[in-house]
Give the backbone structure.
Amino acid sequence: MNLLQEIARQTAVAAHTVRLHRELRQTRQQLVTAQAEERRRVSRALGDGLGAQLAALLIQADTTRQNLQTNPDTAVAEIQSLKTGTRTAVQTVRALVQSLENGNR
């Protein structure tokens, strides 16, 4: 192989290596962006969805506790509502976990 052919081959290899490094940097950046988007999505799901549900349940539990002595019949109905709200919160957690496991957005 003559010198010019060897230089051309090495130049082609170097150019290919540069392209691969550029693609690797782009892929890494895409991964970082995707991870940040997933963190924001999970944060919103926890804060806006589950957090609000749990806060409402706490308020409702306080109201129920107050009604236990003054209005037991109302308290019994509120307990049923608390159970329903708790089930809904559990379903929200399960849906979020399943979404994370499946990689859904």
User: Anything to note?
Assistant: The chain has a mean pLDDT of 91. The domain at 3-102 is CATH 1.20.5.1930 (Single alpha-helices involved in coiled-coils or other helix-helix interfaces). The radius of gyration is 29 Å. Residues 18 and 24 are 10 Å apart (CA to CA).
